[in-house]
Amino acid sequence: MATAGAAASRPARAADLPTDAAIAKEVRDEFLHCWEGYKRAAWGYDEVRPVSGGRHDFFAGGHTFGLSIVEALDTLWLMELDDEVKLAADWIEAHFDPTVDAEVQVFEVVIRLVGGLLAGYLCTGRPKLLSLCRTLADRLLPAFTKSPTEMPYRYVNLRTGAVSGATSPLAEIGTNLAEFGVLSRLTGDDKYWSRAKRASLAVAARRSSLGLLGTTLNVESGRWTDTTSCAPNPPVDSFYEYLWLGSQLFDDQELRDLYRLLTNAVLKYQLVRPNGYTYFRQVDYASGKALGHAQSELGSFYAGLLGKGGDLSTAREYYRSWTTTLDTFRVLPEAFDYESGKIHNARNDLRPEYVNSSLDLWRLTGDVEFKQSAYRYLQGLKSNLRVAGGYTVAEDVTTSRMRLGDLTPGYLFAENFKYLYLMFAAAPRFDYRTGLLSTEGKLLRGAVRT
Questions:
Q1: Where along the chain do its domains lie?
Q2: 352-389 pLDDT tens trace
Q3: Position 9 pLDDT exceeds 50
Q4: Residue 232: enclosing H or E segment and its boundaries?
Q5: Is 0.85 surpassed by the pTM of this model?
Q6: What is the Cα–Cα distance from 292 to 275, expressed in whole angstroms?
Q7: Domain 4-445 belongs to what topology?
Q8: Helix, strand, or coil here: 185?
Q9: What string of H, E and C letters represents the secondary structure of 39-102?
């Protein structure tokens, strides 16, 4: 792997890039390449297998929610693809069923479907989307109301309300503040926000004397089942993100103070700078003792979060460490060990977290560095993961010719291309001053409707 200092010292020159307008068109064209591939092979199903032309049920076998359509809706709107917006919203209103007899993962339904329907409503103003969103959220509430600790169970049956999954990671307990809070604001019913906030506060109350949190809790007993503090890696990543996001969306000082307290602890006990890199080690939440050196691509979002939360210098350092890895492999591996350099997981599941940070840090600073690296990210995907039917995951990014899988994750329609488009398009439908996106890239504030 190249040294972090080499990437950090590379000068940022606008001349290295095509014009913003040309890149925005390129991004839009690539999004449409994926969208048309999905429409041809898997319309109405959750996800497409773009190599074989097959389909994939994401939430429950034999049940589809049209996940990719819901994920794409606000991206289509931001890109001013209004015929496609109508096509997608019409399908959702006619076919989306929030009451199917299936056990679903609460976390995934909240960030993908509740968030997607909310963003679709905020962008289009179509009231049926909000009605469907509210019905779906009501079907999720038993995961909260049946828990003796107010921290939600992982799974719920949308038809029966039966719950399961008592051991839950932090991200799944707390990544609902934004979606449920916006839903409460739109409907005037506080029950969604109050349940979400009480769940997050219940987690924060179980922090150690160092201010650190573990990884997983038993939501029935309230006891930690894994006391490793692994932030910003999954499966805790977006718990911290939503403390910040909730504080911004709802001007909530309690969440703002908790974000600062917990972030200060992560920076004090987990931040390390080996050989010019900036990374975060895993430690015991009670003692701060080092336990591991793993870095997950999903944690690369943290550069943007740190910047938004006021730690811009560390945010830049962490982002540049990830940029070095991107420039080494062209497409980021899922996980590696920063001490040994060993790749723990050579896959790439078309992850958006790095380019999410690109957008966040560019919005904060205006620095061309972030546009340059985001464009290299796009070219890495385009050169290696583009297929006739769209884009697909990679099974191994370390080989000279990457070995490909056969899946377009639904979040590709919600995140990767949206982040890139917003960086380069000067999108008239997005308020660059106040706009806020969820962890799944859903536009929850800042839709400019005319």
A1: 4-445
A2: 999 999 999 999 999 999 999 999 999 999 999 999 99
A3: no
A4: none
A5: yes
A6: 17
A7: Glycosyltransferase (1.50.10)
A8: helix
A9: HHHHCCCCEEECCCCEEECCCECCECCCHHHHHHHHHHHHCCCHHHHHHHHHHHHHHCCCCCCC
